[in-house]
């Protein structure tokens, strides 16, 4: 399963399931130390792993969309 870290609230991370868009919360201690808002997570073998490649693709796609919004004709 893939999740995206939406935000942190206190000791919890709010995750969005990328398939169903459902939101859930888990304790930050269940995430890798380097996890940050916007990261794509895979749930494998009973633990969360940051998918760095998918996170970078997603960030680029969002940046490209923002650039196209602000481009002048």
Outline the secondary-structure elements:
Layout: E1 2-9, E2 12-17, E3 23-27, E4 40-44, E5 47-50, H1 52-70
Antiparallel strand pairs: 1-2, 1-4, 2-3, 4-5
Q: Label the CATH architecture.
A: Beta Barrel
Distance between the termini: 40 Å
Number of E strands: 5
CATH domain fold name:
OB fold (Dihydrolipoamide Acetyltransferase, E2P)
Which spans have pLDDT < 50 for at least 5 consecutive residues?
none
Secondary-structure-derived class: alpha+beta
The oligomeric state of the chains shown is single chain
Number of domains: 1
The level-1 CATH class: Mainly Beta
Features:
73 residues; alpha+beta; OB fold (Dihydrolipoamide Acetyltransferase, E2P); five-stranded antiparallel sheet; 1 helix
Characterization of this structure:
This protein has 73 residues and is α+β, with helices and mostly antiparallel strands. The chain has one helix at residues 52-70; strands spanning 2-9, 12-17, 23-27, 40-44, 47-50. The protein has a single domain (2-70), classed as OB fold (Dihydrolipoamide Acetyltransferase, E2P) (Beta Barrel). The chain is built from 1 helix and 5 strands. A 5-stranded antiparallel sheet has the order 3-2-1-4-5. Strand 4 and strand 5 (47-50) form a beta hairpin. The longest helix is centred in the last third of the chain and has 19 residues, at 52-70.
């Amino acid at each position: 399963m893939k999740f995206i870290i939406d935000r942190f609230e206190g000791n919890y991370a709010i995750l969005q399931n990328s398939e169903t868009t459902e939101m859930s919360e888990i304790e930050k201690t269940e995430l890798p130390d380097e996890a940050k808002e916007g990261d794509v997570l895979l749930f494998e073998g009973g633990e969360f792993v940051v998918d760095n490649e998918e996170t970078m693709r997603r960030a680029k796609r969002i940046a490209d969309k923002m650039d196209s919004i602000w481009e002048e004709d």
